[in-house]
């Protein structure tokens, strides 16, 4: 067996709920609340509606619940639909090292697999922690985004092991599922450049879909290519262009679990702009009106400049997906409104002449100072110059939700409540939060997911003739 696959599957096979420290279990619950809150916020988006509709056109004896409905679909398509809802707002947590990922993207696949396997809350927590561990360790070592490969290239691997774990696959079956997923799902980072399309929100959920499919195939006896990393045309040769070592995993030799390092977002935008937004909001208090602003300068790290200010489209966004990945746009919104919220990504706001006028005044430059702090700190330095010659500047290192500036449990809950407003009743929200805080006691995950049922989504599906 491939050396890396053997290492990964040995760890996955040996990890149990009983090995997880209390802070790790608590963090898994916090991030589950955050991710499912993001799903509620993204429920009405066009990609989410498309994915939900496709999922609910399917039938079969092995089915998982589609979030916001009581309907069940084929588990891989349920994972895709639920993952698209989680990811659409780009509001779910982020992990940073050599590469960047949103590890809660794994939740959709692990949850769907756990439901069809009749797994319980302890199993789900274990699968979530495992998936976070694998994806974050890969981000520590692989450095593939700069070579043109997308986050889903890692996400399909971590989701496959998380799904395989909760389905109770053997170590050998996990290895086959992993190799099938790895050989078949290398994705391009072009999804995140230029004018961003709806697929930006779907690329990694598609990895979760493929992960569940690979686990189901392996469970039925399908074998996968070996060696998948070390082979002549394997991952090391084609994707990473170099071999790497993974080292020890969480819980081994007192190693901390990677889930503790994931960062919760305070704003529904690309991660690299979180501290830039906080800086813009603070500077807003020092400027009497945005009409007085002559120029805004943002000094940032290389990745921030490349991803969120490296295309002309970032100064003239025409889609929500482009706007939430534009440092000029979100800084202009923060300076104008003193906040950046979901409401600021409607077409009306994106094409607002006043906002676009201010966007044109924003300059973004890569900075050696910011790069030296990366990736531990997300340093953005903002400077505002007014028409009267006044200058104001600010440095923000750690946004709210960073491990060095963490959100409290109450703040995580409040984010969920805010995102669920208009989707779930306050009574339902209270019940869901109680279930997640006591997730290790949940025996029926299908009933848990059904708690998110939203009458509007069910009505839409009935009108479309999608329920069978």
Secondary-structure topology with pairs:
Layout: H1 3-14, H2 22-41, H3 46-55, E1 64-65, E2 72-73, H4 75-87, E3 95-96, E4 100-101, H5 106-116, H6 121-141, H7 152-166, H8 171-184, H9 203-219, H10 235-238, H11 274-284, E5 293-300, H12 302-309, H13 320-323, H14 327-337, H15 347-350, H16 353-359, E6 362-366, H17 368-373, E7 380-386, E8 391-396, H18 409-420, H19 426-437, H20 445-450, H21 455-463
Compact description:
This protein is of the alpha+beta class and 468 residues long. The protein is 49% helix and 7% strand.
Keywords summarizing the entry:
60s Ribosomal Protein L30, Chain: A; 2-methylcitrate dehydratase PrpD; four-stranded mixed beta sheet; alpha+beta; 468 residues; 21 helices; globular; 2 domains; 7% strand; disordered C terminus; two-stranded antiparallel ribbon
Structure description:
The longest helix is centred in the N-terminal third of the chain and has 21 residues. The protein starts with a helix and ends in a 5-residue tail after the last helix. The chain folds into two domains: 259 residues, 2-methylcitrate dehydratase PrpD; 126 residues, 2-methylcitrate dehydratase PrpD (60s Ribosomal Protein L30, Chain: A), CATH 3.30.1330.120. It is built from 21 helices and eight strands.
The major sheet is characterized as: 4 strands, mixed
User: How confident is the prediction overall: mean pLDDT?
Assistant: 93
Taken as a percent bin, the fraction of beta residues is 5-15%
Helical amount? 40-55%
CATH topology of the largest domain: 2-methylcitrate dehydratase PrpD
The strand line-up of the biggest sheet is 6-5-7-8
Structural class designation: alpha+beta
- Globular, elongated, flat, extended or rod-shaped: what is the shape? globular
The number of E-state strands comes to: 8
| Poorly predicted parts | 462-468
Number of helices: 21
């Amino acid at each position: 067996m491939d050396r890396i696959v053997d290492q990964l599957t040995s760890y996955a096979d040996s990890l149990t709920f009983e090995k997880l420290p209390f802070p790790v279990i608590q963090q898994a619950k916090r991030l589950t609340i955050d991710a499912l809150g993001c799903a509620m916020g993204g429920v009405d988006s066009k990609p989410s509606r498309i994915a939900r509709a496709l999922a609910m056109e399917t039938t079969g004896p092995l089915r998982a619940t589609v979030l916001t409905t009581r309907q069940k679909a084929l588990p891989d398509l349920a994972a895709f639909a639920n993952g698209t809802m989680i990811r659409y707002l780009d509001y779910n947590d982020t992990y940073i090292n050599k590469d960047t990922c949103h590890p809660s993207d794994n939740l959709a696949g692990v949850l769907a697999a756990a439901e069809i396997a009749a797994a319980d809350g302890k199993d789900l927590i274990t699968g979530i922690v495992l998936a976070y561990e694998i994806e974050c360790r890969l981000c520590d070592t692989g450095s593939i985004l700069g070579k043109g490969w997308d986050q889903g290239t890692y996400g399909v691997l971590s989701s496959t092991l998380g799904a395989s774990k909760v389905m109770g696959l053997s170590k050998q079956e996990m290895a086959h599922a992993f190799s099938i997923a790895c050989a078949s799902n290398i994705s391009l980072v072009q999804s995140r450049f230029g004018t961003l399309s709806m697929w930006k929100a779907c690329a990694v959920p598609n990895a979760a879909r493929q992960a569940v499919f690979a686990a189901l195939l392996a469970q039925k006896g399908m074998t996968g290519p070996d060696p998948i990393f070390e082979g002549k045309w394997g991952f090391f040769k084609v994707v990473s262009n170099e071999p790497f070592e993974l080292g020890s995993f969480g819980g081994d030799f007192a190693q901390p679990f990677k889930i503790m390092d994931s960062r919760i977002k305070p704003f529904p935008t690309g991660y690299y702009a979180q501290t830039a937004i906080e800086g813009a909001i603070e500077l807003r208090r020092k400027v009497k009106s945005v009409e007085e602003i002559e120029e805004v300068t943002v000094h940032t790290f290389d990745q921030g400049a490349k991803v969120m200010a490296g295309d002309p489209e970032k100064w003239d966004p025409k889609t929500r997906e482009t706007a939430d990945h534009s440092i000029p746009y979100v800084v202009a919104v923060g300076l104008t409104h003193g906040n950046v919220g979901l409401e600021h990504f409607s077409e009306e706001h994106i094409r607002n002449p006043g906002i676009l006028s201010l966007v044109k005044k924003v300059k973004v430059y890569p900075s050696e100072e910011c790069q030296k702090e990366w990736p531990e700190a997300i340093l953005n330095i903002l400077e505002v110059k007014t028409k009267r010659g006044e200058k104001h500047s600010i440095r923000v290192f750690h946004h709210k939700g960073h491990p060095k500036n963490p959100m409290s449990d109450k703040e995580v809950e409040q984010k969920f409540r805010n995102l669920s407003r208009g989707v779930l009743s306050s009574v339902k929200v209270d019940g869901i939060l109680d279930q997640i805080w006591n997730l290790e006691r949940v025996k029926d995950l299908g009933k848990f997911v059904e708690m998110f049922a939203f009458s509007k989504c069910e009505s839409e599906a009935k009108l479309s003739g999608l329920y069978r």
